[in-house]
Amino acid sequence: MEAKASGPPKGTRAPNRIVIDDVTPCVAGGAYAVKRVVGEPVRVAATVFADGHDEVAVVLSHQPPGARAWVDLPMASVNPGLDRWEAMFTPMERGVHRFRVLGWIDHFASWQHLVRRKIDAGVEVGSDLLTGAALLEAAAADTTKREAAPLLEAATALRAGDLLVVTDPGSPTRPSAAALFRSRLRKADAAAGPVIEVLVERERALFSTWYELFPRSWSPEPGRPGTLRDVADRLDYVADLGFDVLYLPPIHPIGEAFRKGRNNAEQAGPADPGSPWAIGAEAGGHTAVHPDLGTLDDLRHLVKRAADNGIELALDLALQCSPDHPWVTEHPEWFRHRPDGTIQYAENPPKKYQDIYPLDFESVAWRTLWETLLDVVRFWLDQGVTIFRVDNPHTKPFAFWAWLIGEVRATHPGTIFLAEAFTRPAVMQRLGQVGFTQSYTYFAWRQSAQELTEYFTELTTPPSVDQFRPNAWPNTPDILTFQLQGAPREQFAIRLLLAATLSASYGIYGPVFELCENQGTDNGKEEYLDSEKYEVHRWDLGDPASLRELVATVNAIRYGQLALHTNRTLRFHHSENDQLLCFSKTAHDGADPDPSVPARNPVLVVVNLDPVWNQGGTLELDADALGVDPVRPYEVHDLLTDDRYTWTGVRPFVELRPPLAPGHVFRVSQPPAS
Amino acid sequence: MEAKASGPPKGTRAPNRIVIDDVTPCVAGGAYAVKRVVGEPVRVAATVFADGHDEVAVVLSHQPPGARAWVDLPMASVNPGLDRWEAMFTPMERGVHRFRVLGWIDHFASWQHLVRRKIDAGVEVGSDLLTGAALLEAAAADTTKREAAPLLEAATALRAGDLLVVTDPGSPTRPSAAALFRSRLRKADAAAGPVIEVLVERERALFSTWYELFPRSWSPEPGRPGTLRDVADRLDYVADLGFDVLYLPPIHPIGEAFRKGRNNAEQAGPADPGSPWAIGAEAGGHTAVHPDLGTLDDLRHLVKRAADNGIELALDLALQCSPDHPWVTEHPEWFRHRPDGTIQYAENPPKKYQDIYPLDFESVAWRTLWETLLDVVRFWLDQGVTIFRVDNPHTKPFAFWAWLIGEVRATHPGTIFLAEAFTRPAVMQRLGQVGFTQSYTYFAWRQSAQELTEYFTELTTPPSVDQFRPNAWPNTPDILTFQLQGAPREQFAIRLLLAATLSASYGIYGPVFELCENQGTDNGKEEYLDSEKYEVHRWDLGDPASLRELVATVNAIRYGQLALHTNRTLRFHHSENDQLLCFSKTAHDGADPDPSVPARNPVLVVVNLDPVWNQGGTLELDADALGVDPVRPYEVHDLLTDDRYTWTGVRPFVELRPPLAPGHVFRVSQPPAS
ipTM for the complex? Predict the structure, then answer.
């Protein structure tokens, strides 16, 4: 305490009187960048105050990437009792923006405030006008000739008894004088909060629609596994469903040693293809394409065809090796060793994963390992890959990811990294902080209205919303929840609608999802029976029971409604029936920083969480969140069914019948009051 | 972002894998010290985790004042899902303690965990024992001979197949090996959180009982004003009431220019003594004693007599001047000037306070002013004064207080500063952060059960409880709330009991308080009619309607019950009747850092907030907070009335009758289960 309190203050001026506290948004105390996409507003708030009764001026100063100058915006006092100030800017450029809050004692404003009160009270102010003139003249003496002129003009007006400088906000002398006076004071005596970085990325970092498939199951003809060319030939299916990211499990050669068989059997049969995550064989490792899938040329062909369809390709980044991986012999120093000299395989007693060798990120040779892994990513970037779904990032050091993602961003700023970490909240949030663009979530296990409300409220409010972008998946090759095991088609429709509307980014692992594949293993785990991870399948994409039309419709609605491109505006509305989950989102278009402008383009979603029974009930809508005046009629247009209703008030009754629709997705509109 | 993420990691070791976040307690991000008194525990919590599945070891390292070594305590994982760890230390020495949280990957514990699971699952571990032995041998090679011996002993045991090192917590080899292995690892590879300072003060910084009086009203004979000697002669009254701090308004010469008359009249009459806060006259300024009150000798006499009665003297530090203050002529540069050259008086349009000249803390001569003000404080310290009640500290710069209090603490660490700031929460909290020992509160205006519950919950939880020590006053010379204006005696009793039990420090301005003086001005303000600020009074201390006996009883209870010496353990209990406010406190004795030890010496308070009507109702007690087993009977002993009751369960019925008692103050006890 003493050390900080004492040290007789230095400098000829008295120490600064301004306190700037609790600046938001801020990630991990400023250690990492706040996340935004282009056009997504940054609403900055800070607690700013000084001793005494002087007026305080507060400015938000921000700097686009590469700029040297700072742009200044006045901050508004939004809660004087709590000394809270706010302002907003909307970054329209990718890269690292910076902002900070500045504050200073505004002696001229304090003088104006005092003199206004005296004038209002009928007190004589002749002497005060001279004080004000002297303030202006001192400022003029301290600034450029050009800036000094209006200050001196105002001072002259004051000395002549012109009260307009004080009383008339439209006075030609007043605002310029005040503004210039501020600019002088700021140079001399502004307190500054910390510089906070905002990493602004392209829109797909926030809003993206993912489809995962195993290429080897996409063969058009029986008897041979599918290839990357086969996938390229069926991209119309993925595009018609409205997906913009196609994610493939690892496409590399698969090890043969200790290969797992069907249903994760210890011993593979001779025809079993093995798990794509057992990476590396004689044909190569992390930079090779499995010969059965095709060649690097085929991969580049697929990237190009995908791009033609508005789809980006996402590869899997699984940083582990099969015993047959070339690195095992070329770089044994990158692995842990057992006392007998063999390499340590993964284990989770009593289970042994002898087909997987973890890499040792702490080995003495860590630096060459890290650099090689960065080279792997660069290799695929060079093939046109722009997105990586990272397998189990939480089992590699945070510092590694911070470094790798930072290096990639420096040369390829549009690259998207999706963290596949299903672990404790602090670990998942940290991965977001150190740089992952998007993250898998607990969505699959949040099923009741209360669970969904609590979880998505957490994800869409600070600190999470500024550092962790959710990507909601109802299923993955590793996850078929108990809720979906044996579940009817309607349950799949519900989960689809929830994922697609609660989260700006979502994905499905198909075609098992749209085909409502619901057979779980019988071993008490939330896993698929006869999983594609261990065998080749063939799918009937034209199955009349497929949800593909619903998927296409929902994805089309997502594209059309800006409200569904963001998470930040999510609001839950009360429903008397807890089987009806009701929430809304509104669009940020970034065009209008004025917070008094009503919410725009609202979408109101009502989901029937019951896959079997009709559910009805009265909602209680938050009219402010929807931006409607509840006294006047407003229209709700169900984008799923094209039905339109006119509502008045905030308590509509809704009823949903599972076979017909999993929910309503209403576009809400109200003509302006006449 | 890039700048932080990249920078190819340096050093030969891979970067540290541990994250240490959200360390508490922490004040203003670590910019200021956490507040404690001797014997008051510091419960440290932190979020600590790493990637992967390795075991993490977490240590709380703390350092008493002046020590060079750090004391290490293991932290316990109190919420593994949230990665939250806790440990506690109890500083028993005054001064600045320091603490920090350390964490590291505990490879040996990870190995133990893995091997234990294998043994449990019946898996062969022969090879693992060799791995463990190698870990220990590597550690031994890296440490001193003395530390190496038990490591090598354990390694030998492992190589011989001795599983006890893993399975038996009581094995002679196991714990020492683990402990030493940790100590080796920490030296090499511990991550460290920030160093956080804890300013540990004497108990009276937290627990104190104040009495304010105007000496000039304490004359034993009519016709002359009271003196410091008169006060010294009546200290028995203050001591009998159980106060340990006697606070006097400014004792300095009072200016004559623009002196205010009775009831703050613009013009004083010839006999009006003036406000003590209009400091400075021909007889001197801030280091002089008003001739009518006596001499410096008399002040020293009063200090000594007070000390004989267990009472400390608190002087008022009001940093402002009357126009007659010597500084006005000696140091005109310390004041602001008007255009006509005169000194700027205080004003609050349309009011002018021409009797008060504020000091200009930003004048060009600020440094000599600050140093002179520090000299003023040192002057009174030299007279034996140990406590200062600071008038309006929020109208002087925070940096000034941080500096002045820091300088005083360096030489007089026991000095207590009470901040008299009634302003916005951020400003009041900041004054606590920069060093004020105690602070006035909004208590006088928190009157309903809900208001009191919300406000004292805020004051007794972080961040406030670590930086801001409340001192609750039901009245001051400036404040007679509307609630007390015209109020019956019972209302004064209620406010006394609330202040004395909700807050470890409280005070009253007497004898008007215990005499239940309730006449307010008639001008819509919460002020006393015929205030002592402007005139001399005489008081009948023996008035039979005085609350002095209740005051003495309540203060005696406060001294006897350690639970009432702290704020940190305050818990509110539900009451079905919102006129009955129910809360409890328990003692920290600092002796037992084990959180599983039940709460000690609980005191349960029930206050009837209604001064007129009987109020009864059922409470719903939090048995955990009281540390009682509600299934067995427990005794509640009302320390106000000496009544005893035996209760079982958590829903007792209570009834309070205003003329008899403002509330219950129960000592709760329960014999141990047989």
Answer: 0.92
